[in-house]
Queue: 2 jobs
Job 1
Amino acid sequence: MRVAIVGATGAVGHELLRVLEQSTLNFDELQLYASPRSAGRTLTFAGRELSVQATPEGAIDADVILASAGGSISKALAPAWVEGGAVVIDNSSAFRYDPEVPLVVPEVNGDAALAHRGIIANPNCTTAIAAVAVAPLHRAFGVRRMIVSTYQATSGAGQKGMDELLTQTHRVLHGQKAGAEVFAYPIPFNVIPQIDAFGENGYTREEMKVVWETRKIIGDESLRISCTAVRIPTLRTHAEAITLELERPATPEQARELLRAAAGVEVRDDPASQLYPMPLTATGKYDVEVGRIRSSLVFEGGLDLFVAGDQLLKGAALNAVQIAEYLQQRGALRGRVAG
Ligand SMILES: NC(=O)c1ccc[n+]([C@@H]2O[C@H](COP(=O)([O-])OP(=O)(O)OC[C@H]3O[C@@H](n4cnc5c(N)ncnc54)[C@H](OP(=O)(O)O)[C@@H]3O)[C@@H](O)[C@H]2O)c1
């Protein structure tokens, strides 16, 4: 069983290495690929130094390819990887809206992964985090409408996003003017209500990803969703305020009880002791923190909640590895299973 990471030197690639070290996935060999710029670099995996290779133009001799080198690389090369016999778990948005490609959060729709034809898409990070919290509530109470406002970390734009926050903050603290290359405006001490490009309807592509992808993962095209996506000056972990209109009324206590039993969720909700979800506490955690659960003042019987999830983990690397584990546990991965 051979695993390859394409994009191993990036923000998601770094987390893939760490998550694979902890995972239950059985594999014998790990290959690392990135751009030609990184060829010859070494990265540590389980105490060993592994060498990074330039991504070849054609097939890669691996059973599972975890792709995190961006949409254009996935679009150009994934068909050849599949042709070469690999199952591709893709972190980019290249195939998410292809009806033949399953879009999977294992806790929500793991079985969809079993119907793959070589490529499985990993959802947008904001969507994956929300889906873990909202899907159990949808199953129990039927979500009719969902309004999301996001507070998204700079690492959502990759390593260069984090670098820009740190270098520009340093500049401001030393009396210099902050610039902006990755983001539309200087990010230190600011919030920017734009992630990705604006569409004709006035929503950004990031906001529409939440709409399209949540419906596909939850499997309900009738779900009404609206999102406002905002970049904030944190390093990692996306937070989201979510309002739900429900078909069957729910109390906050019912929601807490349900979410305490839900996979991938940590209920962190005790206002009396100031316990609620935050990037500070959710960073590095596999579970998505959910708290501030209260009855909506707008939708009768509806709920307001706040979630925080490490988007480099559940929103990317962890979810991808969990998909591979899910397939292997069900004997649905080619390659020899070690042990
Ligand atoms: N950051 C997130 O929160 C997040 C969450 C979910 C999904 N994603 C998606 O995951 C993907 C990677 O994101 P990231 O945040 O890890 O980006 P990143 O930090 O910018 O890393 C990009 C990776 O792609 C490699 N790469 C760039 N050009 C390449 C080429 N021509 N051939 C082969 N490899 C190439 C880079 O290698 P070099 O180091 O050699 O340049 C690097 O390893 C994107 O599709 C992104 O949308 C990101």
Job 2
Amino acid sequence: MTFTTVYYEPDSLNYPLGKQLREQYKSLPWIPIESHNRIPELTARDNRDFARMKQYLIIGTRKTHRYVENQKISDYLVPFTSSGCSAMCLYCYLVCNYNKCSYLRLFVNREQMLDRLIRTSHKTGSPCVFEIGSNSDLLLENTVTQNLEQVIPAFAKEGRGQLTFPTKFDMVEPLLSLDHRGKTIFRMSVNPNEIIRRVELGTSPLEKRISALNRMAEAGYPAGLLIAPVILLDGWKTLYGELIDQLADTLSGKTRKSLPIEIILMTYSYVHRAINQDAFPNAVELYSAEQMIGGGRGKYRYRQEHREPAEQFFREQLARKLPEAHIAYIC
Ligand code: SF4
């Protein structure tokens, strides 16, 4: 990942990861900030600076650690070692929270977060699944911090239940030989290559993602697949039909065995439209007045008459082409 500037809370340099990052990026300008949540000179920037701001690295400590109950693939959403991301998917959910300031923020107090996670895992009634990647892409983050290389074996040894995180990247090499004891569920998010190229800017190509998922399954990690977000562009049935053909042809026997598949239709928002129109004027338009309806707080979702045929399409295609897998949910 190429960063151009680092903004940092001075206290971060008292932590081992803060010191490591200082050394790693010593050739860049380092600008002290009061708080990673309040950088007035960046908030004041124009939307057209969005891509430039994605090359900034923000370093601080995480102060809020409240776990949120979740009823999908995990039991709790855990605020973890980063939020924001250096990639630029045009629909990224983080833009709803952080607006144009959705650059990568790293939190250097990882020992504190890991310790809390392990302690909490022993306090739940039965073993739980903890989603640690709901605020960023941890595999991408790992290329900067190597955090997963510490967290996965530490949780395997001392934690109870399982961790999970999704990714749109393929840099799994450092994770393959870790002592994970089956306690980390690795979930790969996929889309047709044309959508990856036009919409998921800066992420890994489909073939590499599938290969990474196969390698992780081969290394014994429990695997999951997300087809997400499903975007109903013109010709979507052809695009997603070809995607499922490709998955059926290239997912290994080990990966596809009991593979849970999450299918999530895209939600979009007023904020995305405003930023994308200014920052990526030539990009594909994801908003469709004909297909979408307001879902509250400036969000848009596909109308029921467009969701239903899409759901039916995925159920039928997956049952026919990937019968060993099962749909965990469609939403
Ligand atoms: S990879 Fe994930 S976190 Fe990063 S921009 Fe894309 S959707 Fe957002």
